[in-house]
Amino acid sequence: MNKQKLTILHSNDLHGDFLSEDKDGLLEGGLPLLSGYIKKVREEEKNTLYAIAGDMFRGSVIDSEYKGYSTIDLMNFLYPDVVTLGNHEIDYGLAHLLFLEKCAKFPIVNANMYIKTNHTRLFHPYKIIDVNGLKVMFIGIITDEVLASTKSEEIIGSFIDVWEAAKQVGVIIDNYKTVKIDLTILLTHIGFDKDQELAQLIDPNWGVDLIIGGHTHTLLNEPCIVNNIPIVQVGVGSHHLGRFDIEIDIDEHKMLDYKWQCVSINSNNASSDKILEEVLNTYKNQTDKKYARIITSFKRKLTHPSRYQETELGNLFADLMQVDSSFDVMLYASGSIRLKELGPIVQYQELKECLPFNAPVWMLEVKGEQFRRMMLFMLRDETFAEGGHSEFYQVSKGMKMIYSKSKHQFLEFSLNGEEIKDDQVIKIALQDYHFKNFSEFLNVPVEEVLANKKQRMVMTDDFSIFEELLSGMNNIDSQVEGRITIID
To answer: Is residue 488 within 8 Å of 339, Cβ to Cβ?
Structure first.
């Protein structure tokens, strides 16, 4: 039997996590250290590939200032062998993404985004990489369930669900059965729960060996095996890297054995890549000049530990939206808050990294019964399931929900101390992205709500509101005060 070893390194959801953090003298994460580790492995193991499972963009002012161009430039120095699209790669618009693809010195694969009018794919669906005679196929998958930002791109479509994505995998593999592929990998950005669904739908005869995923920021200590397919994901940012060491039978073209580990990236196991560090500092120096100014100060550090609970930062931002407003309740998306903590000194750059999605805000009028349905959907069991990825909203002052998980009902659902009645009119506000995806995110048809009254734009740029209000405040505090309480 002829055997050969292959090492596959992988990241997902880097989200502009470019800079290292100093933890008591130990540097952790950051692209220079990540690159240093990848280069070390490439020197030690002659058959090494590095893949990224989507969402390189967003999370850093270095990324947003240059609309992703800086990220592509930095990735060129990181030199991945293959990348798939994440939902945030679309944030700067489709035309801009296609421009950025031309700037990339690495292949970007996606099997299931296409132009509706003639069904033409926007990207190459797969990449076969020859590693010293070993042929490795990567197929890129994303589904409509995570492509909410393309709702404004009317000519763009995607296969609707995981079942359709699985069919597409079969089509690609069937078309290339004449090519001797040693390893077939799905490089996905659909979420850990959907990866498990996808694995279950894979026909064993297709020969899919691995699923390397992203989107839900799931940090695994070991692979999840479904339908004999290992599924892996390594959280979010540059602090961790996945590593497969695989033994392949090159005569039978199949995987014999593998070892997987989630590697912590720090100065103990990696040396900084000085070239990438220099490029990164060039961008950082430019953004520091522009954004390194103090906006405000908090009384203490405020936190946002999870998107699926009421948080200090969530309450602060929801309340700021409601200052001098004409609506009753701000539903501020938890996923819009990208840092787990902020303060006590808040610079413009940090605020921008915490809140990168500046956009209009819309006001809608909903009946009390409709609002209750919306919030019950937000608090459904699937929201809190491991590996799930649902929308969750922070609510402004005056709103109080006590939800029984065992009974699936509210024990209290009140506004300003008064229980909300079914026929009561509540004026709610939502960010643009969430208004455009209202029916999907809140499970009430938007047409049903617009029948009450047409939507009205009440803010053109939510970030400008935060900047203006916070600049005039100091010693700010915010508490978790029981606006959203989940019992049982």
So the answer is: no
| Residue owning tokens 């490089």 | 187
Q: What is the token pair recorded at 205?
A: 């005869």
Contacts of 12 (CB under 8 A, 6+ apart): 52, 53, 54, 55, 86, 189, 212, 213, 214, 215, 233, 234, 235, 236
Mapping DSSP onto H, E and C, the string for 415-477 reads: ECCEECCCCCEEEEEEEHHHHHCHHHHHCCCHHHHHCCCCCEEEECCHHHHHHHHHHCCCCEC
Show the domains of the chain with their CATH numbers: 3-284 (3.60.21.10), 293-487 (3.90.780.10)
pTM (two decimals): 0.81
Segments in 252-357 forming alpha helices (H): 274-291, 312-322, 348-354
Residue 163, classed as helix, strand or coil, is: helix
Per-residue pLDDT reduced to its tens digit, 26-71: 999 999 999 999 999 999 999 999 999 999 998 889 999 999 999 9
pLDDT in tens, 263-289: 999 999 999 999 999 999 999 999 998
